[in-house]
Amino acid sequence: MSTHAPSAAPAAPQLLRLLTCGSVDDGKSTLIGRLLFDSLALFADQIAAIEHASKRRGDEKIDLSLFTDGLRWEREQGITIDVAHRYFSTASRRFILIDCPGHAQYTRNMVTGASHADLAVILVDARLGVQEQTHRHAYLAALLGIRELIVAVNKMDLVGWEEAAFLKVRESFEKLRHELHGANVTYVPVSALKGDNIVHRSANAPWYKGPALLELLEAAPAHYLESDGPARFPVQYVIRPRGRAGAEGEHDFRGFAGSVAAGTFKVGDKVMAMSSGRTSTIESIRILDQRLEECRPPQSVVLTLADDIDIGRGEMLAKHDDAPVATREMGATVVWMGPSPMVVGKKYLLRHTTHFTPVMIARIESKLDIRTFEHEPVGEGKGLEPNDIANIHMRAAAPLFVDMYEDCRATGSFVLIDEATGETCGGGLIRSVG
Predict the structure, then answer these.
(1) pLDDT one-digit tens code per residue, 132-168
(2) How far apart are CA 62 and CA 185, in angstroms?
(3) pTM of the predicted model as reported, rounded to 2 decimal places
(4) Got the DSSP string for 349-402?
(5) What are phi and psi of 24, to 5 degrees?
(6) Cis-peptide into 298, omega within 30 deg
(7) What's the distance, CA 272 to chain centroid?
(8) What is the per-residue DSSP string for 96-148?
(9) Which residue among 25, 98, 309, 312 is least packed, with the fewest CB closer than 10 Å?
(10) What count of Cα atoms within 13 Å lies in the side-chain half-sphere of residue 411?
């Protein structure tokens, strides 16, 4: 008999996943370095190491971009190639910083980072204005469900803090708004190198009456953790300690481990195993030896059910009255990442939550022209090249239990894998079924 009383789930911390993106050399890494440095989020040994690296490169002053450009190749080239993550906090909020590469050939890296972000800071060089890669990153950020965009007009010190330069960038970016899926857009003039309007408001722009970048980040809503959406629990592992007592002496213990993908589950909720359609109620929710009354994203928990149902890895548990759609036919928007073109009629392996199944690309319906945001037809026999964005139709070998991406990121997205090489070659968002 357990002596542990059920307890409520720990309060979720105020966390914001923050993506930075933009064209090459717009100053993304420097902005993050400045944000960390001025918010006192760095340790003395970190600062000393970067000071040493800056001097070794011949820089008179500390190069703040080195805080995020961690790979040696990136440091030598002065660009960001990999997706870099950094963590810091202020008195009111915790942040995960995701710094993404600016080069077009690394768009797939940006997609990876954006798929987990609440907010995107899109940097624009005040001298150069909105570029093609700015279009691409803004479109992808909004496509991937980021609802908050901050356009940081950087290097304002190099244009003499002229308001006209800032307004020109804002006017150009506003022309993209119709393709940004209703995302909120805020504009702020900054100098990442000098620290103006990053953590503290700057006197160099008396015409700007808005908050500094950090103030905007502290006040921004977080949307990524979908605790209010449809309840979804993909099963990752079945825990069944055969032949010995489970936790608390339970010889027949059978628990289902995984991370809550969306929604909230509570003890006593009636849930359905989607593959069989059988229902049961949640008997317990556990984290190690602690019992909870409820769980929500991104908690990793073990659920036990009141009834013995055949459930294995890849199963989807959902509230019985709010189930996902079962389908083998899907329309999707895909970002192609593979070194080889996508081929119509070819089979790929699709990963959806914890489930894998073969799929065939039935057709490519249209491809996006990132310069005009127009969808154009793809000629017969043509495939998708790396970094292409297209609408496709797929046919799966077995039913998948999905939601539309705008309703639930976790169950509305997928990854395509080349079966021959094992390489990830595409990522997509489910837009329609049937």
Answers:
(1) 888 888 888 888 888 899 999 999 999 999 999 999 9
(2) 32
(3) 0.74
(4) EEEETTEEEEEEEEEEEEEEETTTTEEE---TT--B-TT-EEEEEEEEEEEEEE
(5) -60, 135
(6) yes
(7) 28
(8) EEEE---SGGGHHHHHHHHTT-SEEEEEEETTT-S-HHHHHHHHHHHHTT--E
(9) 312
(10) 31
